[in-house]
Design goal:
Elements: E1 2-10, E2 13-20, E3 27-36, H1 39-45, E4 67-68, E5 74-80, E6 92-95, E7 105-109, E8 113-115, H2 122-125, H3 128-139, E9 148-152, H4 156-167, E10 172-177, H5 180-188, E11 193-196, H6 202-209, E12 215-220, H7 225-234, E13 235-243, H8 256-260, E14 264-267, H9 270-273, H10 275-290, E15 300-305, H11 309-318, E16 324-328
Parallel strand pairs: 9-10, 9-12, 10-11, 12-13, 13-14, 15-16
Antiparallel strand pairs: 1-2, 1-4, 3-5, 3-7, 3-16, 5-6, 6-8
Helix pairs in contact: 3-4, 3-10
Amino acid sequence: MRVKSACLTGIKEIEVRERELIPKNDDVLVKTHAAGICGTDKNLYNGVIPPTGGLNGEIRTSFEYPYYFGHEGGGTVVEVGRNVRQFKAGDKVMAFGWVETYSDYFIATEDNLELVPDGLDMDLASLGEPIGCAVFSGLCSKVQLGDTVVVVGMGFAGQVIAQVAKKKGAFQVIGIDVVDGKLELAKSLGLDHAVNSARTDPLTAILKLTGGQGADVMVEVAGTAEAVQLCNDAVKHNGVLVFYSWITEDIALNISRWHDNSLEIVNTGLVHHGILQRRIWVPQALRPVLQGLIQIAPLITHTYALAEMDKAMQTANEDSAAIKVLVRPQ
């Protein structure tokens, strides 16, 4: 069938092209409801190419231009190949993996899809992958009742992780970012303290708020060397360092504290653990969203049509107020 899809043709160059999709026997054809723009998509847009092959566990295909992209998304199954057993026409599904969701239709295998839970709005279901990943991170971050938790980076994932930490019983959740609007939104969703690190030294602020002890849990969600360094410096003795971001730069870091202060290191990349882990955790991670305990709708700051994909990506990449940009086929 003929479809329209967004295609990277070069660094910061996007075209919406018409192309032929030919589903095979193992494929599921999905009519796209919407797709989200992720930080990883922004990296590709900026020419930062992820490693593949060797011991790297990532399941991305090799990268070359022209490149059809998009991995967050959801929609309705239109047809399935004769070997498909888990899905049928009419099912509402969420995409997990590099299945080219910036398109009015996309093709995925069974391994790259999850069923939408009953009652979940399709706009939110189209963000099932980032919601699932962020809630999983919050649930697995070792936060306990009475803890002080610091979330460094208040983008989409940071906003969700901060909410989860508060719902788990943290005594105080501190958010670090350089954009006042993101910090103000986080406070409206339950954040206790907001620190703009462009104006205030975040380490000094954290130590002041913790009586000089440091945080029980530091969560890195900004994807920068500075964020990693702050987490390393501000976690307390016997504390927990939680890593969420895909960090693309080499980092020089003195990790003697990991030994001397008996720090616990937790990597919370859900989709990178494997398909079985995802199958178990995604339904559980979406339950607090269905219950209304975790607020997602306020995090959708911009919506564009597929025909405006270039503008959508520019907004996600350049507008500091953008948290989650949603792209609809029409």
